[in-house]
Every structure is written in C-alpha cells, then in structure tokens.
Design brief:
The protein has 10 helices and no strands. It is an all-alpha fold and 305 residues long. It is globular and about 80 Å long. The protein starts with a helix and ends with a helix.
Length: 305
C-alpha cells in the first residue's frame, strides 16, 4: 500500500511539474480500455438503429462514403501518431525524473525520436486489434438483432459479448503500456517488448490489477466530481440568463453557448490531466515491478549457484 501511495504521489508531482506534457494529454489514453469503451454505445437496439440510419443516408452517395473512409483513416492515424508521441514523452520524462535529471521539453521531444516509431506501430497494432475484436463480436450481433431478436435476447447476448470483450481489451491495454515502457526504457524491439510484457503481467497480475482498480476509482471520481461542479455552475448561469428576460433571444443563446463551450473545454482539460497522471503512474509502476522481477531472478540465480 505504501509503494502504491508513493507511485501515485510521484505521478501527481511529475504531472504538476511538467506542464509541457499537458497538451499531449488530449491525445492520450490513460489506459486504452476505458477510453475505447467510453466511445461505444452498448445499447444494442439504439446502436443498430443508428447504423441503419447512417447506412440509408450514405448508400446513395458512394463519393461521400469514400470521403468518410479516407477522412476517418487520416484522423485515426493522426491521433495514433500524437498519442505515440505523448506516451513516449511521458515514459521518457518519468524515467529521467526518477534519475533526478533535468527535464527540458525540447530535449525530450528530440530524444524520443529514437523510440517513437516503435511505440507508434505498437499502438497502431493494439488499437486495430481492439477494433477487430469489437467487430468480431458486434457484427454477428448486428445480423442477429436485425433478424428480429427479442429485447431480452439482445441484453443477454450483449452481456455475453462484454464478458468476452472487456477482459481481452484490458489485457491488450496493459500489454500495450508495458511494451511501450520496455521500448523506451530498455530500447527493445517491438516483439521482444511484447513478449517481455506478457511475462511481466503474468508475474505481477495481482499488483497490476490493484493499480488498475485504484486508477479507475481516481479517474472517474475526479472526472465526475469536476463534471458535477461545472454542471452546478452551468445551472446557476442558466438561471441567471433566464432572469435577464429583457435581453434579445440571440444574446441569451450566445451566453448559453459560451457557458456550454467553457464547461466542455474544462472537462476535456481535466481528462487530459488525468491521462498524463495515469500514464506517469503506469510508468513508475512498471519500473518498480521490473526492478522487483530482476531482484527475484538474481536471488534465484544466486541460490542455484
């Protein structure tokens, strides 16, 4: 427990001290699982209705479909590139902060070129595999429910799909995080880094899930607390705007739009900070369990000798 508290304390301190990383938090996943799942609507009936609606609108316009596919692909690659830069920079900063070295933003961005492309391809493979798993589970559900399956069957089958989907995505996310750390800290190629990550996760499964659960609690507690506070301010501002009935309608609409925009930006910013914090926490945790693994292996080797 003391070690976990130390990791979280350092992660907070490094997040606070290295403000140049805050921008990269907008493109990070604190852990791939939660950010991936947050963008998926598991209301299968609603989801299928939306798919049919979009399909009906796009089917007569093949040019639009092509443009959407190209735009989506470019956006996916762009976000993945920025995410790889962000994760590499945070791991590098965490490593050298632990070594008590001076951290300069321009030096960090220059040094990470050595590792960036490996982290990028690792992240691209992981995200693509997540999408493949999701498609593998969701496409059969789409055709089953389009054939007229009852709502009760929809719920049961969706829950079964989640039982398969969530553990796979959690493991993939953890392997992705540990592999990126192996690449940046130990300069490993992608495949050896992935293999070493599986071995590390297998040896420290309970400790890893302990940190995972703690970060989930911290992440959602802070995020929803921020949302509640901002929502209260938004409600007060809406009430104030409603009292000013003598203002033109477009002025009231402008005020409300400004309030909503500010609240949205603050929530996105809080999410970015939490992403940086969680990535620092995983980096520090990785270094600690690798050290424990090496110590244990050294003791075993000494005993055998």
């Amino acid at each position: 427990m003391n070690e976990l508290a130390e990791i979280l304390s350092k992660a907070y301190r490094y997040t606070r001290n290295h403000k140049f990383l805050w921008f990269f938090g907008f493109f990070l996943t604190g852990w791939g699982t939660l950010n991936f799942l947050r963008h998926i609507d598991f209301n299968i009936i609603k989801l299928l209705s939306q798919v049919d609606t979009v399909g009906d609108h796009l089917r007569p316009h093949p040019g639009v479909i092509t443009a959407v596919l190209i735009g989506g692909t470019v956006l996916f690659f762009g976000i993945t590139i920025l995410g790889a830069i962000a994760r590499t920079a945070i791991i590098y900063t965490g490593l050298h902060s632990e070594r008590k070295e001076q951290i300069e933003p321009n030096v960090v961005l220059k040094k990470i070129n050595r590792y960036f492309w490996r982290v990028f391809w690792l992240g691209l493979f992981t995200e693509s595999f997540m999408l493949l798993v999701f498609s593998w589970l969701s496409i059969p559900l789409y055709f089953i429910f389009r054939g007229g399956s009852s709502p009760s069957n929809a719920v049961i089958l969706t829950l079964l799909a989640l039982v398969i989907f969530i553990p796979i995505i959690i493991i993939l996310s953890l392997i992705n995080i540990f592999s990126a750390c192996y690449i940046v800290i130990y300069n490993l190629p992608i495949l050896p880094a992935v293999k070493a990550s599986f071995d590390l996760l297998a040896g420290f499964w309970e400790e890893t899930m302990g940190l995972f659960i703690v970060l989930i609690i911290i992440y959602f507690s802070l995020f929803f607390f921020s949302a509640a506070v901002l929502g209260l301010f938004g409600a007060l501002a809406y009430a104030l705007a409603s009292l000013l009935k003598n203002l033109p309608v477009h002025s009231i609409s402008g005020i409300l739009l400004l309030i909503i925009s500010l609240i949205s930006f603050v929530l996105i910013f809080v999410n970015a900070l939490l992403n940086v914090f969680t990535n620092f926490a995983w980096t520090l945790f990785f270094m600690k369990i690798v050290k424990a693994k090496l110590t244990k292996e050294s003791e075993v080797a000494t005993t055998i000798a």
